[in-house]
């Protein structure tokens, strides 16, 4: 993989990039938060199951 060293390659990308709107940001944050909660809930359920049923 060849990484370009000249700054012009990076300025082109920065010119195309834009900051997200508030609606877009809040939607992304909501989806990411839901994913974090889902993974945490699954870990909690597995931990409780391992504590209740010995030998699992």
Automatic annotation (TrEMBL):
One of its GO terms (molecular function) is protein transmembrane transporter activity. The chain crosses the membrane at residues 28-53. One of its GO terms (cellular component) is endomembrane system. InterPro entries: Prot_translocase_SecE_dom_sf, Translocase_Sec61-g, Translocase_SecE/Sec61-g. The keyword Cell membrane applies. It is a single-pass membrane protein. It is found in: Cell membrane; Endomembrane system. Coiled coil: none annotated. Keywords: Cell membrane, Membrane, Protein transport, Translocation, Transmembrane, Transmembrane helix, Transport. One of its GO terms (biological process) is protein secretion. The keyword Amino-acid biosynthesis does not apply. It comes from the Archaea. Essential subunit of the Sec protein translocation channel SecYEG. Clamps together the 2 halves of SecY. May contact the channel plug during translocation. Component of the Sec protein translocase complex. Heterotrimer consisting of SecY (alpha), SecG (beta) and SecE (gamma) subunits. The heterotrimers can form oligomers, although 1 heterotrimer is thought to be able to translocate proteins. Interacts with the ribosome. May interact with SecDF, and other proteins may be involved. Belongs to the SecE/SEC61-gamma family. This is Protein translocase subunit SecE. It comes from Salarchaeum japonicum.
């Amino acid at each position: 993989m060849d990484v370009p060293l000249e700054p012009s390659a990076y300025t082109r990308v920065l010119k195309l990039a834009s900051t997200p709107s508030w609606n877009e940001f809040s939607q992304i944050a909501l989806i990411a938060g839901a994913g974090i909660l889902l993974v945490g809930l699954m870990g909690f359920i597995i931990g409780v199951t391992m504590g209740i049923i010995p030998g699992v």
